[in-house]
Amino acid sequence: xSFPAPYDRFEGEVKSEWIDLNGHMNLAYYIxxxxxxxxxxxxxxxxxxxxxKRTNQGLFAVETHTLYEQELVAGAAVRVRSWVxxxxxxxxxxxxxxxxxxxxxxxxxxxxxxxxxDLENRRVTPWPEAQRSAMDAAALAHCEAGLPEWVGRxxxxxx
Length: 159
Known about the structure:
The chain has 159 residues and is an alpha+beta fold. Helix content is 26%, strand content 35%. Strands 1, 2, 3, 4, 5 and 6 form a six-stranded antiparallel beta sheet that branches.
């Protein structure tokens, strides 16, 4: 499997129904696009919705941090670059950057922490060996390639 560092295979478009009264994409839909980009990565590792249906296991997001930098308007094409920051026996830490495709200016960033969950008992459970191995390899490649400078940033009012 060819897994780029960063992972940059997602392209999307801002839908007109996502535009709020300020005339730009509502903050919730940035998350939708980031989630769609993450779905591509999960499919690479065989952790997609078919995996969930087959195994009754899936991923839960338990923490996110989003930074909004540029407005996006209806019809804007976007690209998302993603990094696997870290992985352990049950957790996955990823970061994504969304770019306006017309000028490749960064529009938003998100950092997420996800858990692998057994959906029957609603408990965190270890990753299957094959998926864990693929995630470890991606995390190593992404760390060696260099992570974004904003990863680990906290919400604060700078003075």
